[in-house]
Write a structure and sequence with these properties.
This protein has 322 residues and is of the alpha/beta class.
Amino acid sequence: MRKGIGKPLACATAVALCLAGAAHAQTWPVKTVRIIVPFGPGGGTDIQGRLLGKKFYETMGQTFVVDNRSGAGGMIGTEIAARSPPDGHTILFTTASLAVSLTLYGSLVKFDAFKDLAPISWVSSVPLVLVTHPSVPVKSVKDLIALAKKTKLTPANNGAGTTSHLSVEMLNQYAGLNLPIISYKGGGPAITAVITGETDFVFATALAAQPHIKSGRVKPIAVTTLKPSGAFPGVPTMASTYPGFEADNWYAMFFPAGTPKEIIGRMNAEIVKALKSEDIRQFMASEGADPVGSTPEELGAYFRKEYEKYAKIIQSRNIKLQ
């Protein structure tokens, strides 16, 4: 190669690749986009996924279809997404359960979430709500801990290994307690156990808690997100009593790793735009969720932080699959 030719040629090649990537992002999607929800139909992930898919169709002119692939704490659907072609036509829409299940399922997980998934955006932040039976004589987290140290209190949770379960384990750690925990098969049965007086309190999902708080059948004590929730005005955070206590039942979207960054960037922009729309914001408020919209890098960093936090809790408390 003659002197002086290499650098201009390399620059021209880089420019051509950037232009090609931008053109690819502008023409994408060229076919139906599959949104894999690794849980059954009817839940919060499924409902949000379908609503967002409709919004994406309105702005992008291509169909986005939810594909429910439940099982193994969300690991089955997540692996399908991770193994899909990285062409922008498969999206994983999942929750904080991903950060829990990676440790809980251990060697049964046949993919590397940090290498095989490409973050797109943190979609929404959903608190768990610490609620008690109205007869439990407490008004704050400090009251609850003081009572738990004097008498036997029994917490419920939404299932072994859920964020509801791990929130009780965190409470045990922060407060120096060792409360026995009763696991139920889902948020509905768990909060029903509190309503009937079978158990004393539960970290309930926002959706499960809202109607029972309004009816007075349970009493809200605190939310588990670091910031107060707009869906529960006046309810303090767990972190106001125990700094660092956080359990955000977040929702987020990922592509298979290797998806062109231009497509990731465009999808991120579409998510952020959708979350600013009035109908999405109204829906989120009704579900007890706060829309977020983050950069891919912010989601990646937060996901790793969440994974490390829950891994430490699972290992220190010796939590096993049941």
